[in-house]
Amino acid sequence: MQFNRLRLTGFKSFVEPTDLLIEPGLTGVVGPNGCGKSNLLEAIRWVMGESSYKNMRGTAMEDVIFSGNSKRPARNMAEVALYLDNSERTAPAAFNDSDTLEVVRKIERETGSAYRINGKDARARDVQLLFADASSGARSPALVRQGQISEIIAAKPKGRRKILEEAAGITGLYTRRHEAELRLKGAETNITRLDDVMGQLEIQLVGLKRQARQASRYRNISSDIRKAEAIQLYLKLSEAEKAVAHERTVLDEIMREIGDLTKEAAHATRLNEDAVAKIAPLRQAETVAAAVLHRCNVEQETLDAEEARANQRRAELNARL
Q1: Per-residue pLDDT reduced to its tens digit, 19-62
Q2: What is the pLDDT of residues 193-207, one digit of tens each?
Q3: Domain range holding 57?
Q4: How many independent structural domains does the chain possess?
Q5: What's phi and psi for 119, nearest 5 deg?
Q6: Residue 83's beta-bridge partner residues?
Q7: From the centroid of its chain, how far is CA 183?
Q8: The domain spanning residue 65 has which CATH number?
Q9: Does pTM surpass 0.70?
Q10: Residue at 318 is within a domain
């Protein structure tokens, strides 16, 4: 597997976007202690899918993000992109469309990591299989870190076997075998659970059959009830229609009576108006007669008084005579 370029942004000491060109042949990075040489190797391992923060020399995976210093504030995101040469088309079929593969891993605080291969979202497992097929990976002996030579010398047969498997190019097969075994175990677990579920479903099936019989009986009884209710409602409707017809007949008779009474009331009203028109002159004549009568009564009282005075005078004169 040929690496073409490594781009780091906000990864550990590389706060600014930094590109490391890996030309054909031998590429070396020289510098004093603490300048970040080890960070480059860790960036390659990290973008290959390293999941242990201890291997990143940190207490949490977010420690790979630039934590700030006296001159620069801390960053909230770190991103590493690794460009691979795919001119021989040895990548998996899903990512084998271009001559260059861009593998990107991005991490944000309190969010976690995300992978992209050629701009498409990918799983960590996809990235790990991509490098495993090329006899490489985040924990491959091909990536020599500090103290790893002594570890290889003192390694047990199992560790040496891993080196030989990578040299033979069968690491990806073992990775896929392990994934297939996990899937197989998951399938066996699902089959066991399926047997339990089938047993429960058989028990439920007996109850459901009983409920189905009850439901069928309920539907039959409900159908009979609906028929009886329909007959009852039809009879009530017939009686209501008869009652409506009778009430309409009564209403017609009442309306005719109301019409006759209305005519009589109109005739009586006209007679009343005529009587009122005749009474008005009589009332006026009565008023005049009452005034004449009052005047006559007054004159009569005056005459009676004069008569009384005259009789009294006559009596006085007779007495004198």
Answers
A1: 988 888 888 888 888 788 888 888 888 998 888 888 888 888 88
A2: 888 888 888 888 888
A3: 3-138
A4: 1
A5: 85, -5
A6: 5, 102
A7: 35
A8: 3.40.50.300
A9: no
A10: no
